[in-house]
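Entry details:
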Amino acid sequence: MYQLLRSVFVTVAAAGILSAAPVTFAGSSGNLAASATFDTDASGQLMIRLTNTATAMSVNPAMLLTAVYFDYWGSNPALSPVSAMMGAGATVACSPYPACAGTLPVGGNVSGEWAYETKADEHHMPREFGASSSGLGLFGSSDRFGTVNLFGPADPDGMQYGIATANYNPLMANGGLQSQPVVVNSVTLTLSGFTGKDLDKIRNVLFQYGTDLCEPQVPGDPWTPPPPSQVPEPATMAAMGSGLTALALLRRRRK
């Protein structure tokens, strides 16, 4: 009987773990808005979907989303960069075209244009972990997600492949964005080393714009709770509670 109850409890508990939902942080300030959705893939790798959620068609460099930073509550995971891919439906925009010819990433892979760092190595990092398409004085060529350089300097630098709004019109680009290829809408970053960690312990998300740490930084609001369909049902919670109670009573009787 003890083994049966133990098996039921472990099965229910595991089901609760496997149903863990992605967590989303969103932030806005004036005409700036962004979101970061943290999730894990089938192998336990951390995936961050970084989106410029503002609506402006005309974007200047200080409105280009170029980095995300975050902390982890508890023992920090040992993360390593795996890939940086354009999000579903994302495109690369640039004007005038001749200056940007040949800058389209194969299969949406922009890994050579994004980099990852930790505060352990770069003490000026605003948070414990960070990923960026621009150097910001923190990210170098050895930090890149990949090795294929699509445009400009080999080091992550400048504005290329930062994230513009979904409505971005390259013909309306101003400032230094002329002749710069940018990703329209979103980029998904994948990092290994998150297996066994909890998405709910990700904290203090911060969105970075432009190419300098002095340019706008927008904090992300606390993560958005999962929709009701992804929250454990009362029956599941009751089953877990009953399992715990039964186990406790059985252990007392066996003493």
About this structure: The chain has two domains: 1-19+233-255, 22-231. DSSP finds two helices and 13 strands in the chain. The longest helix spans residues 234-254.
